[in-house]
Amino acid sequence: KAGVTQTPRYLIKTRGQQVTLSCSPISGHRSVSWYQQTPGQGLQFLFEYFSETQRNKGNFPGRFSGRQFSNSRSEMNVSTLELGDSALYLCASSLYGLYNEQFFGPGTRLTVL
Amino acid sequence: DQQVKQNSPSLSVQEGRISILNCDYTNSMFDYFLWYKKYPAEGPTFLISISSIKDKNEDGRFTVFLNKSAKHLSLHIVPSQPGDSAVYFCAASVYTSGSRLTFGEGTQLTVNP
Fold first, then answer.
1. Do B102 and B1 form a contact (C-beta atoms < 8 A)?
2. Contact, A100 vs A94, CB < 8 A?
3. DSSP label at B19?
4. Across the beta sheet with A5-7, what order do the strands follow?
5. How far apart are CA A81 and CA B38, in angstroms?
6. Rounded distance between C-alpha atoms, residue B31 and residue B47, angstroms
7. Rounded mean pLDDT of A32-38?
8. Is residue B109 pLDDT above 80, yes or no?
9. A26: which DSSP letter?
10. Min CA distance, A22 vs chain B (Å)?
11. What is the torsional sign of CA A6, B39, A18, A78?
């Protein structure tokens, strides 16, 4: 079965702009989580959506937001981009979410200039 | 506050020998632990997990040990193979937290032929 897909794979933006990243989970998976990976901070949890509801949220400012659609596809939006937002953004899907094995997509590499 | 720490950023091992990757955590609420490995330009892939009710879990060449009193877990790979060269992340979660995983910073394992 198809894995987790993320689009776009690479993105270059300038400070102050906003960006929307997309994630399509594995078919049948209802939980989608988003993570930010940077060299200095490692992998940090952004938020999790389950059946279109945000169920869990990490310690990121309100500029980071997300949503999930009825088909479980999820989008993450970052507004007013800052240089420090440059990172690899990973999404992961799992069947139920509860300390379940998660399957990660390849990530979207965002560069903010 | 880094709740999950991998103190060794890198580890180099000879093919056929044992690789031991270590991980420490501070949050005593964590009750489920996972190891992921990550190749460049790919998302992390699940390797092995362990629940806090166990102290050992084995899957082929991979064994995870959990020492709850020391808040320490380790991943043993025996025998190590060149294809095991990757970044290994340990992650921890609390059962009620949905898919929220807290990751360590990762350890780059290099297995030399």
1. no
2. yes
3. E
4. A5-7, A19-24, A74-78, A64-68
5. 27
6. 17
7. 93
8. yes
9. P
10. 15
11. positive
The tokens for A87 are 């990172």
Question: Letter for the amino acid at A35?
Answer: Y
Check CB contact under 8 Å for B98 and A42.
Answer: no
* Shortest CA distance from A103: residue in chain B: B45
The set of residues, in sequence order, having a beta carbon less than 8 Å from that of B40 and lying 6+ positions away, is none
Tell me the per-residue pLDDT of B66-95, one tens digit each, with 9 for 90 and over: 999 999 999 999 999 999 999 999 999 887
- pLDDT, tens digit (0-9, with 9 covering 90-100), for A37-71: 987 777 899 999 999 999 888 889 999 999 999 99
Q: A64 φ, ψ to 5°?
A: -95, 120
Contact A43 B45 (CB under 8 A): no
Structure confidence by residue, pLDDT tens digits, B24-70: 999 999 999 999 999 988 889 989 999 999 999 999 999 999 999 99
The minimal CB distance from B104 to the residues A4, A42, A50 is found for A42
CB contact under 8 A, B44 and A42: no
